[in-house]
Amino acid sequence: MIFVTVGNHYQGFDRLLKKVDEIAPRLTDDIVVQKGYSEYCPQHTRYFDFVPMDEAVEFIKKSNLVISHAGIGTIILCKEHGKPLIIFPRRKKFGEHGTDHQMEIAKALEDRKEAHIHVIYEETRLEEKIKEILKDKGRYVSLGNEGRSNLIGIIKTFIEK
């Protein structure tokens, strides 16, 4: 299963959802989407607006891949549970967020070149990246709380600069 989450931000993330829906029929894994406040309703995937945190964690645990905005909570959970993550940051210029801080987070994580984290900035690269990661899915393992500690350090360093 592929779990797609856009978080709880009040601005929608239709750009990501439309692209996921477009490529869903060409993928072998089922896709479950947490669409939040997005207006777009996928036609080729199961979706819901929101779920309690414990249910979101279960979706992450059961997934072969997570696709998400650059939300820190999702990043930490994917690292803890050894789940590969595609980060597709929300962009201010598309009205998906009020700032481009997600671009900054994505860039900082991309620079670290961690095996679990894959960053894309253009939706045209999504399908290729999904297929690449799923082909290699056996190499990801749980990091326990190491991911949380490392990520908190990254965020602290980023804020202090």
Structural commentary:
With 161 residues, the protein is α/β, with parallel strands linked by helices. The chain has one domain (2-160): 3-Layer(aba) Sandwich (Rossmann fold), CATH 3.40.50. It is 41% helix and 13% strand. The chain is built from 6 helices and 6 strands, in the order βαββαβαβαβαα. It has helices spanning 14-23, 53-62, 72-80, 101-112, 126-135, 146-160; strands spanning 2-5, 31-34, 46-48, 65-68, 85-87, 117-119. The protein has a 6-stranded parallel β-sheet with strand order 3-2-1-4-5-6, with helices on both faces. α4 links the parallel β5 and β6 (117-119). α3 runs antiparallel to α6 (146-160). The longest helix has 15 residues, at 146-160. The radius of gyration is 15 Å and the shape is globular. It starts with a strand and ends with a helix. The relative contact order is 0.17.
The strand count comes to 6
**CATH fold descriptor:** Rossmann fold
**For the largest beta sheet, what order do the strands appear in spatially?**
3-2-1-4-5-6
* Integer-rounded radius of gyration: 15 Å
Order of helices and strands: EHEEHEHEHEHH
**Low-confidence blocks of residues:** none
- Spell out the CATH superfamily: Glycogen Phosphorylase B
Mean model confidence by pLDDT = 89
Structural class: alpha/beta
By oligomeric state, this entry counts as single chain
Portion in beta strands: 5-15%
Question: What is the count of structural domains?
Answer: 1
In which range does the helix fraction lie?
40-55%
Question: What descriptors fit this protein?
Answer:
161 residues; 41% helix; globular; single chain; Rossmann fold; alpha/beta; 6 helices
